[in-house]
DNA sequence: AACCCATTAGGTACGACGAATTCAAGAGAC
DNA sequence: GTCTCTTGAATTCGTCGTACCTAATGGGTT
């Protein structure tokens, strides 16, 4: 997915990145550039470029006379799409999924409220189209079709909010939704109540009812939280 | 601040990063690695490492026979702390500040609600201490002291939420708050109502009243939005 | 305890070659 | 004559290897 094999240093990252984010190297672990270069059978130049990228993600820190030390998790750029993908692909997947779902529950309602005020007619139409597509695929185990429209729906909401920070989470939300369908338990058809909520959100945005759009979207995200057993006692 | 001068490639980034994020090179502009190396008086190796970092931030894309092309803004990793700093330092500062404030308004209330349920006694105490510090510095143009406790307050809230994605925004919020005090108009003492709200949030968290903590924090962020004239007509 | 120095690993520079893509010139067909 | 397809040359990044510099570290000396 995304950008596979954009050079040798990319190949190295495809192995090193997941390994580090999976916690295979405890914080403080020391890696040596030349040693890594030998292990991956690449030149030092290539390995140095890979280390620079990991450094920009704050996964590691390079210091003279010491080597490349792995940084503690609290330093990582956890919003980096690449880091998110690596963590979603590894053993930290459940925890990452929970973090992202909580993030969704905070962002999406506000984004929907903004979208209700700022969405263009085209975006309103697109939203309705997505919601109808969800309805059409909500029965008969058409999970892929449903997922496609679900991802599109949330991406439109986030984009239509007019906030670039929200819009940039479209890909993340898409991966969360895809993960729920593909990896986790999703044997049955989607919850009819959730489908209805999406349709109602589309209506609220079209009607410029920000408060209603926000409240309905909050209900959707609450459902997502409940699916992962994230709730108050 | 942060990490100045971590090598020659860092120096290059300190110039190129702000230039690109400021829009000095329109999307699609092509830069040549060797040309850049000459301009910055560094070797090609160093320049290549710098380009790799910019590439990992999705600011540029490197292609053979073409060069290093600047990507459109919608591709940038706008959550990268480095990118945020560069944009806050440039001409895009007002727009960046608005985006981040809207982001705050979505995140912080939810974070406060979670903090009310998950904060440790130490974090509750720290929160109260911060709020009292804000009160103590709220009169007599003690802006620096007020800012210090304000930043600490919001950082504790975000950390105590137990969500790493929220916690990672602590630095961003701190920079927004600092920006408001230093660059923008903030001649007078802070709004007494805002100070009171912070104290009440600390109380609500201590009392484990999630709903109240969330609502009060929402009032704080609404105030921040109004300061930037972000509101519904 | 303070100081000095050898070791070590990253930091930088330079040069060479390989690989891929773009662009233009030329051959061919209609 | 114009258009298309092919071919090839130019260009720029990609990779490699070497050499040397720099600066932290750790141990040994005074």
Automatic annotation (TrEMBL), chains A, B:
InterPro entries for this protein: GntR_C, TF_FadR/GntR_C, Tscrpt_reg_HTH_GntR, WH-like_DNA-bd_sf, WH_DNA-bd_sf
List residues of the HTH gntR-type domain: 6-73
Q: Which residues lie in coiled coils? A: none
- What keywords would UniProt list here? DNA-binding, Transcription, Transcription regulation
Protein's name in the database: FadR/GntR family transcriptional regulator
């Amino acid at each position: 997915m995304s950008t596979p094999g954009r050079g040798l240093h990319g190949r190295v990252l495809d192995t090193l990145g997941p390994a580090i984010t999976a916690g295979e190297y405890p914080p403080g672990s020391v890696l040596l550039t030349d040693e890594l270069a030998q292990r991956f059978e690449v030149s030092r130049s290539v390995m140095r470029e890979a280390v620079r990228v990991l450094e920009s993600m704050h996964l590691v820190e390079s210091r003279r006379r010491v080597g490349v030390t792995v940084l503690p998790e609290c330093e990582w750029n956890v919003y980096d799409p690449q880091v998110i993908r690596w963590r979603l692909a590894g053993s930290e997947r459940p925890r990452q999924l929970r973090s992202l779902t909580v993030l969704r529950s905070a962002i999406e309602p506000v984004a929907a409220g903004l979208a209700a005020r700022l969405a263009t007619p085209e975006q309103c139409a697109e939203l309705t189209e997505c919601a109808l597509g969800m309805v059409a695929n909500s029965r008969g185990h058409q999970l892929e079709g449903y997922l496609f429209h679900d991802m599109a729906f949330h991406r439109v909401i986030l984009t239509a909010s007019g906030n670039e920070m929200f819009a940039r989470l479209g890909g993340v939300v898409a991966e969360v939704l895809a993960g729920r369908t593909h990896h986790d338990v999703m044997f049955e058809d989607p919850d009819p109540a959730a489908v209805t909520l999406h349709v109602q959100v589309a209506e609220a945005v079209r009607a410029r009812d920000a408060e209603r759009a926000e409240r309905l979207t909050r209900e959707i995200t609450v459902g997502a939280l409940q699916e992962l057993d994230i709730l108050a006692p």
